[in-house]
Amino acid sequence: MKALLDYVSTVTDMRQQKKVRHKMMDIIMLVFFATLANADDWVEMEVFGKEHEKFLRNYLELPNGIPSHDTIQRVFAMVPPEFLGTFQKRWDEMLNSDEGRKVKRLLAIDGKTQRGNGGKGQKANHIVSAVDENGFCLGQKRVDEKTNEIKAIPELLDCLNIKGTIITTDAMGTQTAIVKKIRKKQADYVLALKANQGNLLEDVRLYFSDRGFLKKSAYKKVVEKKRGCIEKREYWQTDDIAWLSQRKDWAGLKTILLTRNTMTGTDGGTHTEERYFISSLPLGIDEAARAVRGHWMVESYHWHLDVTFREDGNHTLEKQASYNLNIIRKLSLNILKLVEVGGRPLSLKKKRYAIGTNPEKHLEQIMNL
Q1: How does pLDDT run across 186-213, given as a tens digit for each residue?
Q2: 20: Cβ–Cβ under 8 A, 6 or more apart, which residues?
Q3: Which of 19, 22, 121, 326 sits a CA distance of 20 to 30 A from 336?
């Protein structure tokens, strides 16, 4: 973590230096420390700084003490998001230096809206993130609205080393241009089909509606007890796609998948959901099922942003400040997954709470990682 301080010290500050009272590096690190220690808004960050100024001076210069919350927000909005994103990329490279891994790494891509950033006459930030199966966010792109995810996903892929990974997206990302980008970067894909690919979805659905597919498909079943209910997950994968008229439009397409989730409640009632996918993976039901199931990780990550960091409750309207806070929360979330706090297993939310009760002890521990 000492490398974080070294990197943050290189930030380019475009302000007029004669008028600068608080260093940009100090403000970035103050926001980072305060976020780990359970502060969620600018006022709480100022309070945290003033209560723990002596400790913070072990790492920060603070030539004029702790800045006001207005100054923290204003200066933090000037930090280039690309600067914070580069640190995320370095973090990713550190965590994933094992080139010889036998199991392909999953990378789920999905978007989340910062609801507190919206207001009268202003649409909220919508941020597309890439999250791996270990729950680490490796990068993100801000877009004006959800429909622009289609443009943001290729830009995000360009920022990441995805060679040898399996990319998953929801149906919004099932686009021929995105598939070409994935394959060009030597990765595989498992992409959901919905109404936005109507003809392709209908062809795949009709194929799986004929029970003859059972003889030509690999099959896997998983049964689990969940919140008192029984969940049965079934997966079928086939490479019998010579009949598919659109197959040449999708670079590297090798297989199609059907998944069927059946939930049986305590009252004996059942609910069944079927979903369809296209994939560049060859026939291999275990890896295909792992990819389909693994996409939930990005949804879990977004849940943590709301529950652990109360992101939607933060009403920062300045676009760049809100986006930069999103990146800091993700860095903090990545770190919380790695550290032990209090000598026993705790949820990420409770880890933040524990750090906030004794920042001197726990942040010192984190900085010595």
Answers
A1: 999 999 999 888 899 999 999 999 988 9
A2: 13
A3: 22
